[in-house]
Design a protein that fits this description.
Blueprint: H1 21-43, H2 54-59, H3 66-87, H4 99-109, H5 112-125, E1 130-136, E2 142-148, E3 159-165, H6 172-175, H7 179-186, H8 192-202
Antiparallel strand pairs: 1-2, 1-3
């Protein structure tokens, strides 16, 4: 069964003024769509793998046939990362989390603002294309990691809770080379309910 491009959970212009409509349209309809097309093409000769969901494929990268690993890392990772990214933003987002996630952030980072500073600095300082993620490590601790290109945080033993795309195509039309401004705007969009859901899942 071929993977499909998921619909955005909001209109292209719903995240303005923080992310413009044209960026969202190109990012979703061109970049994400291309990852899906190329992932499906790579899996055409592997029908035994077509029944797996994208998380299963990305998690089991090293166990896949050698000739398939690069495509799943790049295009499968792109599909997985972006599918989460759309859901982690909302026109009604922003603020800070509540409940178990907030308590865990305060425990592992000292304070929510300390986490916010660490996450923003990691995203801004990541060299080249990639992602910054908040996730849960094998010890059950929340940590911030960055990933090159479309690598998944699973490859670092981290279950994703919150992520930001810092490829230039995610922000260049509006922010040009001002990545820190894009990151600052992202805090106004975060869907903390989705992040809380991912956190609860990661702790099981």
């Amino acid at each position: 069964m071929a993977f499909k491009l998921p619909d955005l959970p909001y209109a292209f212009d719903a995240l303005e003024p923080h992310i413009d409509a044209k960026t969202m349209e190109i990012h979703h309809d061109k970049h994400h769509a291309t990852y899906v097309v190329k992932l499906n093409a790579a899996l055409e000769k592997h029908p035994d793998l077509q029944g797996k969901n994208i998380e299963e494929l990305v998690k089991s990268l090293e166990s896949l046939p050698q000739e398939l690993q690069a495509a799943v890392r790049d295009h499968g990772g792109g599909h997985f990362n972006h599918s989460l990214f759309w859901e982690l933003m909302s026109p009604k987002g922003g603020g800070k989390p509540t409940g178990a996630l907030l308590k865990a952030l305060e425990k592992d980072f000292g304070a929510f603002d300390s986490f916010k500073d660490r996450f923003s600095a990691s995203a801004a300082g990541h060299f080249g294309s990639g992602w910054a993620w908040l996730g849960v490590n094998a010890s059950g601790k929340l940590i911030v990691v960055t990933c090159l290109n479309q690598d998944s945080p699973f490859r670092q033993g981290v279950k994703p809770v919150l992520g930001i795309d810092v490829w230039e195509h995610a922000y260049y039309l509006k922010y040009q080379n001002r990545r820190p401004e894009y990151i600052a705007a992202f805090w106004n969009l975060i869907n903390w309910e989705k992040a809380e859901e991912l956190f609860e899942k990661s702790m099981k």
